[in-house]
Amino acid sequence: MFLFDRDKFTEIMHALGKNKLRTFFTAFGVFWGIFMLVIMLGSGKGLHNGVSQGMGDMATNALFVWTQPTTISYKGFPKGRRYNFNNDDTQALRDNIPELEYIAPRLQAGGGTENNVVRNERTASYRIQGDTPDMNKIDPVNILAGRFINEKDITDRRKVIVIGIRVKEEMFDKDEDPIGDYLRIRGVYFKVVGVYSSKKNDQQAERENQQIYMPFTTLQRTYNYGDIVGWYSMTSYKDVPASEALAKVKDLLRERHSISPMDDRAVGSFNVENEFKKMVTLFTGINGLIWIVGIGTLLAGVIGVSNIMLIVVKERTKEIGVQRALGATPLAIQTQIVLESVFLTSIA
């Protein structure tokens, strides 16, 4: 109960009030240390969240592979040769690389300046993505209404589409339900079975929200792509390094398309796991620096309080002597000095 002794706190306020400037700068030192630590931690966390949201919920072990011109002559083929992935490559990847959990062949149509989507009097240009259900496990989107592409769509080559929220806003009235309605894409009618929004932010989200997904096999057949695959999105199993799976994928694709094993440029790739590790390392370093600077600043304030305690004791030597002569115990005097410091630090 002595901690709440009214006389003690009256004495504390009197002692602090006698040296207003000293009290202010001591409290400010502690306040500034805590303030800087909070600001820097908040800034670091905000930067981390911003980068993370930019990736959305994309799998951190995702791989992307595409074709590029060869750079080395091989088996009679000249360098600079162009080639395409195909459906047989997809099956070969599934059969020969058990490290891969999901394999999503992809195709793209449209997205230029030409208006390729029509509904009544409205026309617009959107990027058309030919995808499989696995794509929504690799780089998922928010399904706002209806559903995403399913396996039945792929098998039956159904003429169905899943549209982005911006497509819905531009091609349909606000009170219209697009599910079950039709859009004409490059002269062919497709039924809308779902509406989605991107999980990313900024320009990435804007681009994704203006896309239209249709079954991969439907896009191949409807627009005469044959068995061509534009590129692959894949993920490795959680216990398998993505770089290990990627090396096997590239070796297999080079072998199937008669590309030199030494030609590292003929199969383009992007490994999300590598980028994610770089990001983790970067933010670990940033957080470490923040804590070092923040704690250092805070310690400066603590040292300031300690020095003030020393000064207070020296200034009040006679007062302490009188208190001892009147019967005050050492603990009571120590408590008084510590209470002043705790009170000042708490306010700061």
Structure description:
- With 348 residues, the protein is of the alpha+beta class.
- It has two domains: 120 residues, no CATH class; 204 residues, no CATH class.
- The chain has twelve helices and 14 strands.
- The strands form two sheets. Strands 1, 3, 4, 5, 6, 7, 8, 9, 10, 11, 13 and 14 form a twelve-stranded mixed β-sheet that branches.
Keywords:
two-stranded antiparallel sheet, alpha+beta, elongated, 348 residues, 14 strands
Break the fold down into its secondary structure elements and pairings.
Layout: H1 6-18, H2 20-55, E1 62-67, E2 85-86, H3 87-96, E3 100-110, E4 117-119, E5 122-124, E6 127-131, H4 135-138, E7 142-146, H5 151-156, E8 160-164, H6 165-171, E9 182-185, E10 188-197, H7 202-208, E11 211-215, H8 216-222, E12 228-229, E13 231-236, H9 242-256, E14 267-271, H10 272-315, H11 317-325, H12 330-347
Parallel strand pairs: 6-11, 8-10
Antiparallel strand pairs: 1-13, 1-14, 2-12, 3-6, 3-13, 4-5, 4-9, 7-10, 8-11, 9-10
Helix pairs in contact: 1-12, 2-10, 3-9, 10-12
Note the gap between the termini: 24 Å
- Poorly predicted spans: none
The biggest beta sheet is recorded as: 12 strands, mixed
Helix content: 40-55%
The number of distinct structural domains comes to 2
What is the number of strand segments?
Answer: 14
Cα-atom radius of gyration: 33 Å
What sequence of helices (H) and strands (E) makes up the elements? HHEEHEEEEHEHEHEEHEHEEHEHHH
Residue share in β-strands:
15-25%
**What is the mean predicted local confidence, pLDDT?**
85
Strand pairing plus helix content: what structural class?
alpha+beta
Note the overall shape: elongated
How many distinct helices? 12
Oligomer: single chain
